[in-house]
Backbone:
């Protein structure tokens, strides 16, 4: 059928009600958001953001309500979608934005694609990767992997991807979202090494929409975390990484077929791991317990 592209949509959306189908690749995926309130009677108050792209650039796509439980887990980073009967709206101004792996890619930030169960009922088709043709001009997923030796030179709030061997994973802890709030964030601390430094990555991993991964992080697994943010803890200048709204976490059993397996730094890490003695690494691993971070000063005077 006749297709349109994201660049053409941005120029013509105000003058149209119906739009031609779109062929796009998912480059980023947010966590699933629940926006239900007791006074509002809604069956499925869910929402998820994706960043999708074609040859003309990148745009936000929003999955609404009952489409979330049906489609959220099938829509992975790298998935190619054929969309028809979608709606176009002005962008929500306060949403978070991931840092694209390709800094040259054009971003269409004024509008977003809305996928709804009605008004109009969106038609979603997932195109298997083996059927995707080069002539469609869809961009590949690109990453911003860093090594531990590069981390200390990066500015606060810089966005990056990391891979490492887990040497420590703490227990799950909770923090209030707001003071006196009944809502909590669930998170855990982890350490991962990649052979480029004596220091590990210190990772603050909040529970994303991947409970099956979050609950099964354990020492000696290869851990990949994408769209992490660099945090500098003053005055000690301790650097750690924390998850963002668009972070994805992967452990052993989940790596197969992921686009990052082609990345040069991922291949270098696997080469390094193959040269290591598993027995030596196991001796250095720790699991559970309370992890005070940032560490308190050694004396009350400094405190």
Residues:
């Amino acid at each position: 059928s006749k297709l349109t592209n994201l660049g053409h949509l941005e120029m013509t959306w105000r003058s149209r009600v119906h739009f031609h189908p779109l062929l796009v690749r998912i480059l980023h995926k947010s966590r699933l958001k629940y926006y239900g309130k007791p006074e509002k009677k809604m069956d499925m108050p869910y929402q998820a953001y994706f960043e999708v792209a074609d040859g003309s650039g990148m745009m936000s796509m929003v999955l609404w309500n009952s489409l979330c439980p049906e489609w959220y887990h099938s829509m992975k980073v790298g998935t190619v979608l054929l969309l028809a009967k979608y709606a176009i709206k002005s962008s929500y101004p306060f949403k978070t934005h991931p840092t694209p792996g390709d800094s040259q890619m054009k971003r269409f930030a004024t509008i977003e694609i809305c996928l709804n169960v009605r008004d109009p009922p969106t038609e979603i088709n997932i195109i298997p990767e083996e059927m995707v043709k080069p002539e469609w001009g869809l961009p590949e997923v690109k990453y911003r992997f860093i090594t531990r030796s590069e981390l200390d030179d990066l500015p606060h709030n810089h966005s990056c991807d990391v891979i490492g061997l887990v040497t420590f994973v703490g227990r799950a802890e909770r923090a209030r979202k707001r003071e006196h709030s009944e809502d909590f964030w669930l998170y855990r601390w982890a350490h991962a090494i990649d052979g480029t430094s004596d220091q590990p990555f210190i990772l603050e991993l909040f529970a994303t929409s991947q409970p099956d991964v979050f609950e099964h992080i354990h020492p000696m697994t290869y851990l990949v975390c994408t769209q992490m943010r660099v945090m500098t803890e003053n005055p000690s200048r301790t650097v750690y990484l924390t998850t963002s709204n668009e972070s994805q976490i992967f452990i052993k059993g989940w790596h197969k077929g992921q686009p990052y397996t082609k990345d040069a730094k991922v291949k270098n890490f696997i080469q390094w791991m193959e040269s290591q003695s598993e027995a030596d690494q196991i001796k250095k691993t720790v699991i559970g317990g309370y992890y005070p971070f940032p560490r308190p000063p050694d004396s009350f005077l400094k405190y």
